[in-house]
Every structure is written in structure tokens, then in C-alpha cells.
Amino acid sequence: MPTAQRNLILDNMVTALQAISGAPNYFYSVHPKAVSRVLKPVDRITIFPALFVTEGTESSRWQTLGPQLLTNIFEIVIWGYARADGSIASDATRAKEALLHDVEVALAAALEPGQLNGSIVDFIPAGTTLSVETDEGLAAFFGAPDVGVFRMRLPVIYRHAWGQP
Q: What would the DSSP string read from start to end of the chain?
């Protein structure tokens, strides 16, 4: 279950992805209702492309020299579903790759390091790895031949200090 700080980070991620708005920088124009924090199976998705932001693992480290500093490394997972509709992409693989491009552009444009509710937040810090896994075309075997799926994992570091130096 996400903490209040994690909820703010996840909500900011949803807002960033809702900004995917078509040309000139994006292939797709994502409907705001198609970006959610509630993951759905592909057969329940009615609006494509669809993006789902979920929480992954988190590790925390206390530093107690001077003020207590809590450093958290939080993994956000973004699930993307794109349908080959002939206008943006002719097949599921191209649709998925176009949506992946749009997500990367939206993240780069919107998620600057800074302050969020009293914490210092760094989305996808320098030197960390953003990983992407795809369905490798397997969605076709599960009844969705025109849908491409990806899962992106990205790190967020946030820090919060308590006490006096």
C-alpha cells in the first residue's frame, strides 16, 4: 500500500502521462481517462492507448548524522497498451513502440527533480536504469492480436529530513 508521499509521486506520474497530446512531439493523443492507477486486463480496456501507473518495490535508508534523513528508492511501474488502428501504426509492435516513445518524451518533459510535499524528489535520477519489457508479441496468443503491451520500470528517489542539525 503506497504511503502518502508515494501517492503524490504516483499522481504526478499520472498527470505527466495525461499530457501526451498528439503532434508535434507525440504520436498519440492519450485520453485522460485512459491513464489510471488501477491496472486492468486488456479485455476490459475500452479506450486505447491506455497507460496504468502502479507502485513497485521500495527500499529505505536512514542516515542519523545530524538531522535524521530518510532516503527512499521507489520503483514505479507503467503498463502501456496500444492498439494497431491503421492511423498511427499498422501492427501491434509499431503501436507499442509509438506509445513507448510518447511515454519517454512525456516523462522527460514533465518530471524534473524538485520539492514535493516537503520531500526532495528525483524522478529517474542520473546514473540509474529505466527498464522496459514488452509482451514480445504474445498478446496475440491471448486473444488480443492487434494490441501491443509494455511494462516500464523506473526509479524515483525521494528524501525527507526530520530533526535539527
A: ---HHHHHHHHHHHHHHHT-B-TTT-S-B--GGGEESS---GGG--SSSEEEEEEEEEEEEEE-SSSEEEEEEEEEEEEEEEE--SSS-SSHHHHHHHHHHHHHHHHHHH--SEEETTEEEEES-TT---EEEE-TTGGGGGT-TTEEEEEEEEEEEEEEEES--
Name the pTM for this structure: 0.84
41-80, pLDDT tens digit by residue?
A: 888 999 999 999 999 998 888 776 666 778 888 899 999 9
Tens digits of residue pLDDT in 84-125: 887 888 888 889 999 999 999 998 887 766 666 566 777 666
Could you tell me the residue range of the domain that residue 77 belongs to? 4-162
Which CATH number belongs to the domain containing residue 120 in this structure? Answer: 3.30.2000.30
**Structural domain count, the chain:** 1
